[in-house]
Amino acid sequence: MGVVLAALLGGAAVATVGTLVSQRTAEGFAVADATDDTAAVARAVVEPALLDAVADPGASAADRRAAADRLDRAVRAVTAATGAVRVKLWAADGTVLWSDEPRLVGQRFALSEDDLEALESDRSDAEVSDLTAPENRYERGQGPLLEAYQAVHVPSGDALLLEVYYPYDAVLGSAASLRSAFATLAFGTVGVGIALLLPVVLWLLLRLRSGQHDRERLLVRALDAETAERRRLAADLHDGPVQDIAGLALGLGAAAGSMPGPGATVLEESATTLRSAVSALRSSMSAIQPAAPDRDGLGAALDDATARGRAAGLAVRLDVPATVPAGPPALLAAVRFVREAVANAVRHARATTVRVRVNRRDDELVVRVSDDGVGFDAEAVLRSRRSGHLGTTLLRQIAEDAGGSLLLRTAPGAGTTWELAVPAGTESGW
Question: In this predicted structure, which of 123-127, 249-253, 395-399 has the lowest mean pLDDT?
């Protein structure tokens, strides 16, 4: 639906912009047509009807009147056919020599730079008439007008300026006709294009959705295969090398107890080394395939979470009920919390023992991790943002993510206790 809507909006925008551009283009064409019409009138009608007496101040009144009548007859026939509302004939000094508005004849006004250039270059041009100008006062009230001008010449060769005024509504009407035709063509073309492309777009979207589903299925299968392989490796380690090394450590320990002298010390040291190796292997097994609290039980998951502490030489004591009535998000929060708290004890506490206790209190799951280490100044550490105290920040973040609370009890030389309380039935995602 988003693609279809974008196509419709984009097509409509293109057609609309094209229509607006066609409006301006049509107005330009209409102005050009008016300019061409004025040039044609000047060459075919006005110039043949001009006599020198029109612009000759020394001509007799009778000659000037005869020249004006001749021009009047020629121009009025043309203006009736072209729809012009005013015609003016100017001398180079700005005097109106003739007009179909007799009150303007003989009056003198300043010519614009465009008018003077048209006289000198013998070119045609057009512009919207300035009806506030005094020479245009008799055209006011007829709406906006288009003023087209063209140089003409009397038989003696003197240049005069012919101005013809057309209703601008005619220009707008011509532009509207062209705009309507273009809009029909533009919207029709866009509509046909969208109609032709829409089935292709929908087909591509369906193929894309199908491919996405296939990739998701393949990803699930790959993850399942990876999980199965991790379980197999963990099981092989547990049933093979770990059991063998653990048995060897027990045997060496028993032999050390029954053998007097220096040999007993060597055997005991060897047994200790093997027990450390067993702890390290079990820690590696936890990393390869950590126990999931909702599948293997919270006790097994916390046993994996504390493997790092045991590998570092800590005595870890777990007090976890066989069945913990809590939802998966709360159980996962407990595992994350214990793993981070034990890691902090390994890094900073210099402890020998860590105790983990889990219990249900009303509607909350409460997890407490205590160590017998050196403790710390809680107020100073919690205010610190140094990287060495990132663990405290992570513990706070775990509590916030689970919608729970975090309690800290510690002091220099008094050990550390962290207590996490989270809603047992929270729906927070992990």
Answer: 249-253
Q: How far apart are CA 327 and CA 325, in angstroms?
A: 7
Nearest Cα residue to 324 out of 301, 354, 290, 355: 301
pTM for the full model? Answer: 0.41
pLDDT for the residue 427 = 44
**pLDDT digits 0-9 by tens, 315-357:** 999 999 988 888 888 888 899 899 899 988 988 889 999 999 9
Q: How confident is the model at residue 220 (pLDDT cuts 50, 70, 90)?
A: low
The DSSP bridge pattern shows strands 159-167 and 315-319 to be unpaired
Element holding 421 (H helix, E strand): strand 416-423
H-type alpha helices, 312-389: 328-344, 378-383
The H-assigned helical ranges of 238-261 are 243-258
- Tell me the DSSP string of 33-99: HHHHHHHHHIIIIIHHH--GGGT-TTS-HHHHHHHHHHHHHHHHHHHHHHT-SEEEEE-TTSBEEEE
CA dihedral 221, 223, 228, 230 (to 10 degrees): 160
| Residue-wise pLDDT tens digits, 248-273 | 777 777 777 777 777 778 777 787 88
- Beta-bridge partners for 88: 99, 163
Residues 6+ away with beta carbon under 8 Å from 215: none
Pair of tokens at residue 422? 């989270």
Distance CA 262, CA 278 (A): 25
